[in-house]
Automatic annotation (TrEMBL), chain A:
GO terms for biological process: glycine betaine transport; transmembrane transport. SUPFAM superfamilies: MetI-like. Keywords: Membrane, Transmembrane, Transmembrane helix, Transport. Its main location: membrane. InterPro entries: ABC_transp_perm/SBD, MetI-like, MetI-like_sf. PANTHER family: GLYCINE BETAINE/L-PROLINE TRANSPORT SYSTEM PERMEASE PROTEIN PROW, POSSIBLE OSMOPROTECTANT (GLYCINE BETAINE_CARNITINE_CHOLINE_L-PROLINE) TRANSPORT INTEGRAL MEMBRANE PROTEIN ABC TRANSPORTER PROZ. It is found in: Cell membrane; Membrane. This is ABC transporter permease subunit. Belongs to the binding-protein-dependent transport system permease family. The chain crosses the membrane at residues 27-53, 60-87, 93-112, 133-151, 189-209. It comes from Nocardioides caeni. Residues 27-206 form the ABC transmembrane type-1 domain.
UniProtKB/TrEMBL annotation, chain B:
PROSITE patterns: ABC_TRANSPORTER_1 (PS00211), ABC_TRANSPORTER_2 (PS50893). The lineage of its organism: Bacteria, Bacillati, Actinomycetota, Actinomycetes, Propionibacteriales. This is ABC-type quaternary amine transporter. SMART domains: AAA. It comes from the Bacteria. Keywords: ATP-binding, Nucleotide-binding, Transport. It comes from Nocardioides caeni. Residues 3-238 form the ABC transporter domain. Pfam families: ABC_tran (PF00005). One of its GO terms (molecular function) is ATP binding. Its EC number is 7.6.2.9. It is an enzyme of class 7 (translocase).
Amino acid sequence: MSLFGDALAWILDGGHWGGPTGIDTRLWQHLAVTFAAVALAAAVAIPLGVLIGHTGRGRLVVVATAGAVRAVPTLGLLTLLGLWLGIGLTAPLLALVVLAFPSLLAGAYAGVESADRGAVDAARSLGMSEWQLVLRVELPLGAAVVIGGLRAATLQVVATATLAAYLSDTGLGRYLFAGLKSRDYPQMLAGALLVAALALLLDVALAFVQRACRGPAPLAPSDAAPEAAPAKG
Amino acid sequence: MGIEFRGVSKTYADGTVAVTDFSCTVPSHSTLALVGSSGSGKTTLMRMVNRMVDPSAGTVLIDERDVRELDKVALRRSIGYVPQAGGLLPHRRVVDNVATVPVLTGTSRRTARADALDLLARVGLDPALGRRFPSQLSGGQQQRVAVARALAADPHILLMDEPFGAVDPIVRRDLQDQLAELQAELGKTIVLVTHDIDEAFRLGDQVVILRTGGVVAQTGTPQQILAEPADDFVRDFVGADRAERRLTTTEVDGRRIVVDGDGRPVGVLA
């Protein structure tokens, strides 16, 4: 049988499911690590991005910094953090937070900035406070772009969360490292396939959310109501 | 409510002078039309009333109260605003756009929506359009919605920033007529910004013609300005020498026909 077939057979083997090292457990761990990293990064990056997008201030500094952070190799950072913090989940989680940060930040400020300036100006003129502008106008209008940032960050983190297994007994990355060490290539490929499948699944789900945020499509011209309506008060 | 501009100037941070020592009083229930080409500071002046712009010098008063003593947000909610090209919130249905300010000031959503539907009818729209999103309306319909939204909290003052600039001339005429009709009934104090002198003459009780840098070229009623343009700039701006403004009469079959400078008939003398 081919390596690919062996990997599939490995996944489908009931013996590899259930228990503390089973595929289902690893999947949940992987998801939990991904979710935790993205959530932690979002808790800082999104408010910061919204602030930059709303005020237009500090854009250059933050964008340059975020760009520099993008260039940091995650494995290198993980090694460094690992040496500092030791074995465990803290170092990988921190590295993943750093990985997720730039995409989330870029999505948040680009999203808020992308809100139609005419609508924002009008809403301010009508008497919305700055908070109301952000929550009721800029974020709803920029939601698709903000979710786009979340989507990019999630995709990067879910794929890179395999590194959590580098320093701890967590996630689908275990199969990659274990397979590599024991030359059990079907197991290794199985791990890779599971990560890819999970990444695709999350990406498709977020793509749907993003699409739902795009707002209403204009009606076809034939559906538009005539200019003058009969009703007059 | 009366509005008074008392010696206001505005210089922006980049050194652009938008308004120079402007003074003017808008009596209650009357319409002031600020007219000028781009860069004449007319929008800046209008935005001083609801503190979207704070003057560099001078004061703006509403009923003898300096607007700077008032809370910005509360002030804006108490003033109707019709922005350029609609400025509707694209993610909200028409009815919710109209209900924006009442909802902000604490009216229940249900009541505000019911009132909004009545207002749509009032500005000549089928209330059934309330369910649509702004992008699903024509330009003229969007402007009507913007007018309805500005009236929703029943403000005493209305600010209109080139409200009909983005629609075609026939629809514009229609919207102007409707606004005149509404104004006759509601008697708001209106500050209207436009670059269209005909619109200023049609809707303004008082017209201020501005030059570049917000310098007043002439202030007066449309009649005064047309009868006695202060200088060549105003004469040129109002087109006092244009053929369509120079009307003469001629007699045809015993009836007096009015013709313009090109000899084209424009009407019959009553």
